[in-house]
Design goal:
This protein is an alpha+beta fold. Among the domains are: about 80-205, no CATH class; about 215-375, 3-Layer(aba) Sandwich (Glutaredoxin). The chain contains 16 helices and 19 strands. Mean pLDDT is about 75; it is low at about 1-20, about 20-75, about 205-220 and about 540-549.
């Protein structure tokens, strides 16, 4: 049973921060799975920073990486293609396969083996669902009542992220962690007389490569608070007088945005208020548009905003850099992973502040204008934030590789560096503990080690009382434990208790568990009991007792 897949939902629930727009190849807003943007302002909580990247199983392809060695910037695939390959097997053949593939059941059967059965007319090809999407974007495909949905990320040859296959009211949900070209077993569902096995083939198009940047290219290094600001290399100016350089008597606020980005649009009134409040006082506000799929829509957008958006607006210069000079030399070089992002440049031409424009308030602007802003202290705060991001990356890597002890060790480092954030540390520690137990539980169930699974469920249930976890997460843990207990009862053949347990779960959740139990069954009597229970559940009838006919 995909117990651990529930944890994806828990982690998303645990993150209660507003989502910015991640920068992806086709410039669309990634709605279902987005992560808080790692801004270079002092952290409001280590948990916010550490949770940034391992909320996702990887980073969307166009996101700039921080911490790269100067001289090399990874590039990613243009698209991810997922094929869901369905093989229909007569139930008696499915039982035989399960018996041969102990302890994994039918999940231990490879696609190649299934294709051999198809060639021998012992199974049949039931279709292929295929969908392609740029990394970080949701995609779906439907065929004959079956729907495939995913939102995957790509980093080098690694593909990862959430994926769901729905069939009627049943669904198979998982978190993908695979490599380019892999074929993986997803799960199975039961129809009258047949068991459908689902395999996934994952491919990247546009092979990953390494682009070597020159030593003078700021994008190859790291741009932060206290550094000299790069040159302004805008393209066409949509509104306001063009700015070609920094005047020594001016302070510049440059905000990176796009028309498709909801949080960017929400920030416009705040920026307009800033522009109006400091008009004639030495502040120049620039709305630097980037990552726009159709730049022709920017001018009408600005015109429609009217007096709600009165500051300067410019397009990016893409004549020499595909992604745009400003997007590359400013945003990418700073390591920011999303927009909106604002840069405040002082009269000395140095970057005084980087962050979400909604966080920029009058006192900071006034101090920069007056020359009294403590740039050194801001740089220290920014470096401290970078340390948190680096630790977040380390925890993310250990987390997705299942290296729980290493993840705990990295978290202990974070606890030492950020002693003022005990609640966020406790939250992350609880998340790691839940995932560790969920993974162990998955392993015990697949091995049919019911006693070990039972003991793990008890420990998992105790985490639902963890004060650091939000209420929604606790409810998800309770649901996870209920599903696991139902699977254990089915595995032990305790039919009366299992029938009672189905009443404690939503029908779809109970069906999911029984379906997985059917796939793992290895004898005809058990198969028939489970199939009968499935029929009752699908008819919305909760069986008090299951009799073999």
């Amino acid at each position: 049973m995909s117990i651990s897949s529930i944890y994806t939902a828990i982690m998303l629930i645990c993150s209660s921060i507003a989502n910015p727009c991640l920068l992806v190849e086709n410039n669309r807003l990634k709605k279902k799975l987005s992560a808080p943007s790692p801004m270079r302002t002092p952290p409001k909580g280590l948990g916010m920073l550490l949770a940034l990247d391992f909320l996702l199983a990887g980073m969307p392809s166009a996101i700039a990486l921080t911490g790269q060695l100067p001289g090399a910037v990874p590039l990613y695939a243009n698209n991810i293609t997922v094929e869901a390959i369905l093989i229909a097997v007569p139930n008696h053949e499915a039982l035989a396969l399960a018996a041969k593939s102990e302890p994994a059941g039918v999940s231990g059967t490879s696609l190649a083996q299934m294709q051999e059965l198809v060639a021998e007319n012992k199974a049949r090809s039931a279709g292929v669902l295929s969908a392609t999407s740029p990394p970080g974007n949701p995609a779906s495909s439907s065929q004959g009542g079956i729907k495939l949905e995913f939102s995957l990320a790509a980093r080098d040859n690694e593909i990862s992220g959430p994926l769901i296959l729905r069939h009627g009211e049943a669904e198979i949900a998982t978190t993908i962690n695979a490599r380019n070209g892999d074929v993986v077993y997803l799960g199975s569902f039961i129809e009258t007389g047949e068991t459908y096995l689902v395999y996934l083939r994952l491919n990247l198009s546009g092979a990953p490569s390494i682009a070597v940047a020159s030593a003078s290219d700021p994008a190859a290094g790291f741009l932060g608070v206290g550094d000299p600001a790069p040159a302004i290399q805008a393209g066409a100016w949509i509104q306001g007088e063009p700015v070609t350089g920094f005047a020594p008597d001016k302070v510049y606020l440059i905000e990176f945005w796009a028309t498709w980005c909801g949080p960017c649009v929400q920030s416009i009134p705040h920026l307009n208020e800033i522009a109006a409040a400091y008009d004639g006082k030495g502040l120049v506000v620039i709305g630097q548009n980037i990552s726009e799929p159709d730049e022709s829509r920017v001018k009408p957008f600005v015109e429609k905003m009217g007096d709600k958006m009165t500051y300067r607006v410019a397009l990016d210069d893409k004549s020499r850099m595909e992604k745009g000079a400003m997007a590359t030399m400013w945003l990418k070089a700073s390591g920011a992973t999303g927009i909106p992002v604002a840069f405040l440049v002082g009269k000395d031409g140095k970057i005084a502040w980087i962050g979400h424009p909604m966080e920029l308030q009058g006192p900071v602007i006034e101090q920069v204008l007056a020359g009294t802003f403590d740039l050194e202290q801001e740089a220290v705060s920014s470096r401290r934030t970078d340390e948190a991001l680096k630790l977040g990356k380390e925890i993310e890597g250990h987390y997705h590789a299942g290296r729980w002890d290493e993840a705990e060790a990295a978290l202990n480092k974070a606890s030492e560096l950020f002693p003022e954030e005990p609640q966020d540390i406790a939250l992350l520690r609880a998340r790691i503990a839940v995932q560790r137990m969920a993974t162990q539980l998955d392993q015990h169930i697949k091995a049919k080690a019911w006693n070990a699974a039972d003991a793990t469920v008890e420990k998992l249930s105790e985490l639902s009382f963890e004060e650091a976890l939000p209420g929604e997460a606790k409810k998800e843990i309770e649901t996870m434990a209920l599903k696991a207990r139902l699977m254990i009862l089915l595995g032990r053949g305790d039919w009366d208790a299992a029938a009672t347990k189905t009443k404690q779960l939503p029908r779809a959740e109970a069906i999911d568990v029984v379906q997985e139990a059917i796939a793992m069954s290895d004898d005809e009597a058990t198969f028939q009991r489970l199939r009968h229970m499935m029929e009752h559940l699908r008819a919305d009838m909760r069986p008090e007792h299951v009799q073999v006919q």
